[in-house]
Amino acid sequence: MNRRALALGALAVTGALALTACGSDDTGNSNGGDASATAQAGNIDCGDAKGQLQASGSSAQKNAVDAWVKQYTAACKDVQINYNPTGSGAGITAFTQGQTAFAGSDSALKPEEVEASKKVCTDGQGIDLPMVGGPIAVGFNVPGVDTLALDAPTLAKIFDNKITKWNDPAIAKLNSGADLPDLKIQAFHRSDESGTTDNFTKYLKAAAPKDWKYEPGKSWEAEGGQSAQGSSGVAQQVKQTSGAISYFELSYASDGVKTVDIKTEATEPVKATIENATAAIGAAKVVGTGKDLALELDYTPSAEGAYPIVLVTYEIVCDKGNKADTLPATKSFLNYMASEEGQGQLAEAGYAPMPQEIITKVRETVSSLS
């Protein structure tokens, strides 16, 4: 897939983010008819957008949000967007308590969370809008090893403290010729409730059911290992700890952090790339009802070049009940994210696009928000 196609798809996913400004907390925004509010810069139409949008949640999409906010607020100087990467669980809680305009979550809303959202979405409820896709990279720090292939059963045993040395026969079998050291494995997981953890454990459960006995979820259930806060926290631990391994979004695998190639049913191990994640996300199915666009991901793809450990970040927004003072800014920001200019930033930041048919539905839903 060429880079432009990726960028266009990625952009569409972005669109949902803006959507999320629903049930916003009081920010004292005003919508006076100031002519300056209609200023445009490039393809960014600020419309009547003013005031602040408060949001929190998924740290997976933080790098994408940062890129969008930088460009959008440079053009729309009357709008301030504050996104706090507290983790998916905390983000949903803040949203259902009416503390934020929207939440980012790497897992779709549960039935009890939808019910809780009705308290802040006047005459409506929270819905899932898939905005950002991407691979969950498995980063490693093993001195002398630049390329590493692992499969689901081996990963499950590593993160369940059943394989504890890097020269274990199971790892050696998958990496013929590699000079694996007699070094203790330092496995790190998220300390906070995380949609990344949810998706990573869904992969382990689906692809290695005999070796991963725990139920998938936002909270880490396996014993042993070490923990760190947020995607940036576990990525930093891998970077600075000899023998470390952890899971985080590809956008955090910077500054020389190496990533594992995943052995699937395909002929060759699959690298964690935007293109390979897009191939897997393309098999996702919409399982949400009504305006809800929750997806069912395929964690065991067999196609060549389909990276199996992926996530989709949703923007959690009210279908009805958006506050009148934040709705203009919400739609303006959303329109920017859905534009070619906005989406073009996602591939550069390490994210994968949503399928075109999904993006089309997201845009239709955004236009109907009230």
From TrEMBL:
GO BP annotation list: phosphate ion transmembrane transport
Annotated region (Disordered) at 215-235
Q: Which Gene3D superfamilies match?
A: Periplasmic binding protein-like II
Residues of the signal sequence? Answer: 1-18
Q: Which GO terms describe its molecular function?
A: phosphate ion binding
Q: Choose one Gene Ontology CC annotation of this protein and give it.
A: ATP-binding cassette (ABC) transporter complex
Q: Name one Pfam family in it.
A: PBP_like_2
Q: Does the keyword Transport apply?
A: yes
From what superkingdom does this record's organism come?
Bacteria
Q: Which residues bind phosphate?
A: S58, S59, A60, S88, D106, S194, G195, T196
Q: Which UniProt keywords apply?
A: Phosphate transport, Signal, Transport
Segments forming domain PBP = 49-341
Cite the record's Low complexity compositional bias ranges: 222-235
- Family assignment from sequence similarity: Belongs to the PstS family.
- State the name under which the record lists this protein: Phosphate-binding protein
Q: Which organism is it from?
A: Actinospica acidiphila
